[in-house]
């Protein structure tokens, strides 16, 4: 309506101004203006010069002029009226009528059409069962791992190779070429299925000894080699490749790549079409050969612009396979690196072929395209009926190539019918076609869930949207939802998970944020509170990408992504792809329709990938079937990711304490951890977590089921106070500055080091060690005292000597008793994640005998201030037999009777057995302690080793 008012206001202005020649003249084109002044000026001047004399001719002239003048005025009025009528008609038709032809007249139609130029597009890919199977018996003798020789740790192609392997979840080891070879075998198995040389030259010029060793390995285990020609400074023409009947030309510019359709290497890659145009780079190498061991895999033409020629040039071999007929080793040589997209596919095929199928990636891919919110969008950017038509038509066409394909439409009911009249018709048309799409719910008003700290309010918002769906006939049963702006999914906002379950019974969602947005190749899934969180991929279309000519980098950039670039590769590398697009990508130039139809056609053209689609729930189930190891989440620290900070629960700020613990006392059990915990808690600057109702002072978060309760649960043990952090300096001195957590079972928990490091990478670790034999005995007494039936039915000796054929409960008890004492093994696991300098080892015997000194050392290590002198706070209690906390001159407070228990000494036989049992572990511990630096070797360790040897 605003436009109309605007125009109606202008009409009187124009009419009025027409009474004044000057003002109307100023609105006419300059030529017309000039003529007008001349003709009128002459007439007026003539009348004045004759001083109003009355003669006929003058009268006739005057009358004529008068008539002419009024005719002229009327014509002007008519023209102005005509212009106005036409203008309003156009506005009316474009706003209120579904008339694309008319709209086309006034608006440039820029909508790009999806790619269709591909020779093989209409031929369906051949059945994968036989044609693309590289598997042979030989694969059973090698591990599915790649050994990559790089030039330096930072070299570009080496990094690209590693990235592609990571993306495809292929295990690999990187070695700098030129150094000695790593161990290649493991018992009777080859450790690597394929050897890759970032620079083929490094393979050719390897020293004789290593080359013989490597070639021998390759022959014995049927392991193949991939080598990339590296750009050479001098241009070689027909130079022989050292040791091979093979000749190369280097530093070429090439164009128009195609593939050898009969190559046995092709599996993922489909031959048949030509990648037209210049190939990236000016340093391509091509191979010339005349031995039957060689078979071309890829060809290209010389770039005729650079090398003008009159005749047709024969194709040049840019990727070559060596069947190994000459020396029994199969190889694939690449004439250039991975800058050319087709090489990325061929590289995966080379790994598959040369490893006899051990490194074959699946050919099945699933794809789901979400439309963020089909009703949220500014007027003028929303879907009109013809956009909805196009959406349905494209879905049909994609569905012909991708079985099961349906656009997945998100909705926030509040914004329904918020567009122009025509856009509202678009909304209605969507609702008339609900059964054609799958649907998922957002929040009613597209609000970010992490902003809610009240479950009822959050649920009410979801209920509003659910009521809207019921009223409008939108299906409710997808079990899928997406949170606006990824809010609250990861880092997990527990209220969102609860509300999703209660209102919608959500079973699956997706986000780009776990563990982080970038790098995309590391995005993963997890399951939290029974909701599968799937990784979502990026397709390059955002809310503001509505017009092709405004796409960042222009149309070429989008086409590059589709035609072998980022988007294409994303689908090639990810077995399950969920993309998020926005409603605005389906209006205007309909870029999403263009993008997905094009990329799917391009995939069809160049790969043997079988693309299918399914509703989100099936996708989720499939994802975790493929990656069961991802089910468990690994919680990171939201404060370490700027994006995470913005979508984290509102009541948790990174600038307000509590922070997470600064150090962890990780055990092991029965070494004096409670005494240490108590002593630390006496310090005014140190505070532990709040007690847990189940495990008292211990939270036991990182090792057991508590981990699944999430980060909010963990953080609730470190109560908020009002001290704030500014530039990492605490602004309130009365608050404890050092939060710590003690859970003695962390020490030997399999997953604990990784989980702890993910959340607390800069935490310090405190470990207490005593004789592992004594520890085992103390632990046995501990579980006995707690009424453990097995421990009460079997003597300590029987427990530690229980054989592997003993009843399971007894074996379990034996393991739990003995395993934590393998100190070196467990410490190594921690040190795989934490730096040596983050670890502090306390001699548990010293903690008993001289706790004040132990506490002094510990404070210095933790950099706790002020240093508290524990000698005046701890006193030896002869009755307890241990140091206790000083209360006053006469009273002290000791640990409870479960700490420092009275029990008979260990029998000699058990002692001997345990000393032998722990011998190798203790020896490894001495080695480790020495490696860790200046730590004195504890007396008990020296004694144990000397008694056994
Ligand atoms: P025992 O009860 O077998 O003697 P934890 O707290 O890790 O479970 O370790 C318990 C052990 O701490 C006790 O084992 C005891 O030997 C030791 N300890 C060390 N200092 C202590 C202290 N000041 N008071 C009580 N026990 C102490």
TrEMBL record:
User: Which EC class is this protein assigned?
Assistant: transferase
Amino acids binding 3'-phosphoadenylyl sulfate: 778, 899-903
Q: Pinpoint the Sulfotransferase domain residues.
A: 661-919
- Name the InterPro entries for this protein: Heparan_SO4_deacetylase_dom, HSNSD_N, NST/OST, P-loop_NTPase, Sulfotransferase_dom
Identify the EC number(s). Answer: 2.8.2.8
List, from the UniProt record, the residues annotated as the active site of this protein.
670 (for sulfotransferase activity)
**Gene Ontology CC entries for this record:** Golgi membrane
Annotated localization: Golgi apparatus membrane
Q: Which residues cross the membrane?
A: 78-97
GO MF, one term, reads: heparan sulfate N-sulfotransferase activity
What pathway is it annotated to?
Glycan metabolism; heparan sulfate biosynthesis; Glycan metabolism; heparin biosynthesis
Q: Where is the Heparan sulfate-N-deacetylase N-terminal domain?
A: 142-354
Keywords, sorted A to Z: Disulfide bond, Glycoprotein, Golgi apparatus, Hydrolase, Membrane, Multifunctional enzyme, Signal-anchor, Transferase, Transmembrane, Transmembrane helix
Q: Which GO terms describe its biological process?
A: heparan sulfate proteoglycan biosynthetic process; heparin proteoglycan biosynthetic process
Q: What Pfam families does its record include?
A: HSNSD-CE, HSNSD_N, Sulfotransfer_1
Q: How does it sit in the membrane?
A: Single-pass type II membrane protein
Where would I find the Heparan sulphate-N-deacetylase deacetylase domain in this sequence? 364-568
Paired cysteines (S-S): 884-894
Q: Of which family is this protein a member?
A: Belongs to the sulfotransferase 1 family. NDST subfamily.
Q: What is this protein called?
A: [heparan sulfate]-glucosamine N-sulfotransferase
The scientific name of the source species is Clunio marinus
Name of the encoding gene = N-sulfotransferase
């Amino acid at each position: 309506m605003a436009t109309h008012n605007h125009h109606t206001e202008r009409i009187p202005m124009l009419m009025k101004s027409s009474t004044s020649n000057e003002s109307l003249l100023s609105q006419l084109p300059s030529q017309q203006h000039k003529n007008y002044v001349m003709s009128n000026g002459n007439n007026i001047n003539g009348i004045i010069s004759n001083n109003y004399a009355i003669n006929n001719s003058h009268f006739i002239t005057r009358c004529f002029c008068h008539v002419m003048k009024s005719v002229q005025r009327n014509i002007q009025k008519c023209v102005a009226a005509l212009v106005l009528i036409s203008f309003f008609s156009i506005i009316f038709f474009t706003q209120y009528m579904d008339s694309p032809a008319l709209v086309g007249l006034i608006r440039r139609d820029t909508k790009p059409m999806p790619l269709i130029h591909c020779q093989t597009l209409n031929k369906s890919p051949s059945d994968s069962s036989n044609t693309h199977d590289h598997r042979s018996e030989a694969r059973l003798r090698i591990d599915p791992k790649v050994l990559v020789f790089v030039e330096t740790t930072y070299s570009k192609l080496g990094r690209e190779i590693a990235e592609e392997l990571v993306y495809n979840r292929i295990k690999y080891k990187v070695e700098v070429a030129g150094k000695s070879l790593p161990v290649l075998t493991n018992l009777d198995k080859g450790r690597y299925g394929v050897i890759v040389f970032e620079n083929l030259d490094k393979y050719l010029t390897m020293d004789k000894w290593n080359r013989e060793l490597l070639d021998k390995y390759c022959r014995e285990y049927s392991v193949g080699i991939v080598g990339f020609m590296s750009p050479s400074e001098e241009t070689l023409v027909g130079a022989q490749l050292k040791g091979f009947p093979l000749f190369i030309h280097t530093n070429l510019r090439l164009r128009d790549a195609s593939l050898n359709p009969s190559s046995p290497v092709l599996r993922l890659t489909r031959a048949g079409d030509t990648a037209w145009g210049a190939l990236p780079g000016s340093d391509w190498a091509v191979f010339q050969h005349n031995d039957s061991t060689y078979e071309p895999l890829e060809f290209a033409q010389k770039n005729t612009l650079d090398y003008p020629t009159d005749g047709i040039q024969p194709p040049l071999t840019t990727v070559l396979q060596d069947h190994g007929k000459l020396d029994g080793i199969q190889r694939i040589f690449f004439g250039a690196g991975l800058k050319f997209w087709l090489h990325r596919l061929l590289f995966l095929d080379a790994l598959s072929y040369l490893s006899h199928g051990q490194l074959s990636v699946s050919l099945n891919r699933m794809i789901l395209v979400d439309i963020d919110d089909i009703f949220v969008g500014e007027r003028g950017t929303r879907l009109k009926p013809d956009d909805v038509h196009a959406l349905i038509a494209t879905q049909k066409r994609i569905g012909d190539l991708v079985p099961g394909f349906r656009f997945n439409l998100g909705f926030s009911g509040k914004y329904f019918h918020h567009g122009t009249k025509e856009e509202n018709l678009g909304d209605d048309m969507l609702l008339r076609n609900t059964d054609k799409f799958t649907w998922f719910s957002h929040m009613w008003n597209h609000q970010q869930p992490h902003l809610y700290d009240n479950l009822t309010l959050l649920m009410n918002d979801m209920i509003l949207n659910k009521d809207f769906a019921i009223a409008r006939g939108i299906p409710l049963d997808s079990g899928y939802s997406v949170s606006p702006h990824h809010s609250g999914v990861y880092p997990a906002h527990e209220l969102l998970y609860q509300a999703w379950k209660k209102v919608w019974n959500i079973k699956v969602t997706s986000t780009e944020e776990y563990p982080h947005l970038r790098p995309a190749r590391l995005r993963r899934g997890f399951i939290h509170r029974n909701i599968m969180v799937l990784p979502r991929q990026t397709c390059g279309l955002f809310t503001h990408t509505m017009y092709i000519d405004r796409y960042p980098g222009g149309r070429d950039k989008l086409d590059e992504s589709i035609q072998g670039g980022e988007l294409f590769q994303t689908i090639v590398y990810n077995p399950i792809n969920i993309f998020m697009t926005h409603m605005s990508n389906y209006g205007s130039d309909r870029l999403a329709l263009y993008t997905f139809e094009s990329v799917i056609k391009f995939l069809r053209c160049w790969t043997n990938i079988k693309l299918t689609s399914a509703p989100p729930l099936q996708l989720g189930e499939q994802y975790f079937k493929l990656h069961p190891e991802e089910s468990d989440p690994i919680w990171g620290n939201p404060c370490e990711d700027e994006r995470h900070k913005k979508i984290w629960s509102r009541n948790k700020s990174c600038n307000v304490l509590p922070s997470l613990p600064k150090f962890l006392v990780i055990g092991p059990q029965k070494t004096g951890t409670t005494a240490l915990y108590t002593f630390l808690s006496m310090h005014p600057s140190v505070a532990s977590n709040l007690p847990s109702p189940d495990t008292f002072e211990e939270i036991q978060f990182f090792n057991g089921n508590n981990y699944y309760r999430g980060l909010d649960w963990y953080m609730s043990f470190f109560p908020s106070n009002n001290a704030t952090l500014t530039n990492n300096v605490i602004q309130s001195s009365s608050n404890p500055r050092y939060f710590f957590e003690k859970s003695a079972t962390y020490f030997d928990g399999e997953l604990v080091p990784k989980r702890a490091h993910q959340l607390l990478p800069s935490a310090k670790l405190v470990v207490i060690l005593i004789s592992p034999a004594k520890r085992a005995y103390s632990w046995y007494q501990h579980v006995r005292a707690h009424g453990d039936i097995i421990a009460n039915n079997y003597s300590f000796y029987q427990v530690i000597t229980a054989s592997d054929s003993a009843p399971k409960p007894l074996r379990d008890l034996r393991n739990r008793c003995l395993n934590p004492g393998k100190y070196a093994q467990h410490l190594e696991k921690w040190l795989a994640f934490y730096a040596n300098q983050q670890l502090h080892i306390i001699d548990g015997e010293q903690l008993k005998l001289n706790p004040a000194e132990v506490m002094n050392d510990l404070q210095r290590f933790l950099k706790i201030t002020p240093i508290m002198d524990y000698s005046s706070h701890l006193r030896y209690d002869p009755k307890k037999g241990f140091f206790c906390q000083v209360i006053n001159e006469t009273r002290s407070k000791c640990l409870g009777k479960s700490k420092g228990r009275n029990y008979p000494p260990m029998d000699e036989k058990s002692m001997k057995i345990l000393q032998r049992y722990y011998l190798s572990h203790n020896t490894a511990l001495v080695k480790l302690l020495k490696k860790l630096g200046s730590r004195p070797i504890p007396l008990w360790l020296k004694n144990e080793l000397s008694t056994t040897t």
